[in-house]
Design brief:
By secondary structure, this protein is α/β, with parallel strands linked by helices. Helix content is 33%, strand content 19%. The protein has eight helices and eight strands; from the N terminus they run βαβαβαβαββαβαβαα. Strands 1-8-7-6-5-4-3-2 form an eight-stranded parallel sheet. The longest helix is centred in the last third of the chain and has 14 residues. The protein binds D-xylitol-5-phosphate (DX5) and zinc ion (ZN). Zinc ion binds next to β2. D-xylitol-5-phosphate binds next to β2, β8 and α7.
Length: 224
């Protein structure tokens, strides 16, 4: 599995919001390609974060691709608005949306890539029907809601099985992984088939976020 594009996607959840512009510039200099924005509603997950106005402001301030991860109930009500606000990737949880096909289609027709997200206890079989309609699948490797949690190691095998499923169906769906990723485990998740790697605390909790991104990229060079 060489010759792949591996994207490092810093999650601003762990950034210093009082200096958000500088934090984003630092990860961009380090070689980040995607900026991951965690949207939480205090209902689907037990935490509240940012929403449309923040995505809109960031979209004006950076050239990085904005990836909105919607951890909200009824994501179909808001998904298109995140595209209009400037997100080029929008993902919704399969657990939160009984009308996943419609929501994915609405994200695409609004002009962004559409992602389906599965929680750690949600099986990849639950994606069986939705897979052809998703541009990417986000595998959660922690329970969503907070940064800085410990990586659930069975996620590596889950990514491997998802990669097999995607290849057996001759799809070009990309795999994103999110939660507890650091220098210790990034090589294993990339080897298993993940290509978009979300990292929060291991970047913004580091003394030098720019160097942290560079180090994570270097840990994946053998696959690019
Ligand atoms: C968790 C969020 C993640 C989080 C990742 O609910 O979806 O994107 O910010 O942070 P770390 O890398 O610290 O686990
Ligand atoms: Zn996330």
């Amino acid at each position: 599995m060489n010759g792949r594009t591996i994207d490092i996607a810093p999650s601003i959840l762990s950034a210093d919001f009082s200096r958000l512009g500088e934090e984003i510039e630092a990860v961009e200099r380090g070689g980040a390609t995607i900026l991951h924005v965690d949207v939480m509603d205090g209902h689907f997950v037990p935490n509240l974060t940012v929403g449309l106005p923040v995505v809109k402001s960031i979209a004006h301030a950076t050239k990085l691709t904005i990836d909105a991860h919607l951890m909200i109930s009824e994501p179909g009500r808001y998904a298109e608005q995140f595209v209009e606000a400037g997100a080029k990737m929008v993902s919704v949880h399969v657990e939160a949306d009984p009308h996943l096909h419609r929501t994915l289609a609405s994200i695409k027709s609004a002009g962004a890539l559409a992602g389906a997200v599965i929680n750690p206890a949600t099986s990849i079989e639950s994606l069986e029907e939705a897979l052809p309609f998703a541009d990417y699948v986000l595998v959660m490797s922690v329970n969503p809601g907070f940064g800085g949690q410990r990586f659930i190691s069975t996620s590596i095998e889950k990514v491997r099985r998802l990669r097999e499923l995607i290849e057996s169906r001759k799809l070009d769906t990309r795999i994103e992984i999110d939660g507890g990723i650091d220098l210790e485990n990034i090589a294993a998740v990339v080897a298993a088939g993940a290509e978009i790697i979300v990292v929060g605390s291991a970047i913004f909790g580091a003394a030098d976020p720019e160097a942290a991104v560079r180090g994570l990229r270097e840990a994946t060079v053998q696959w690019v």
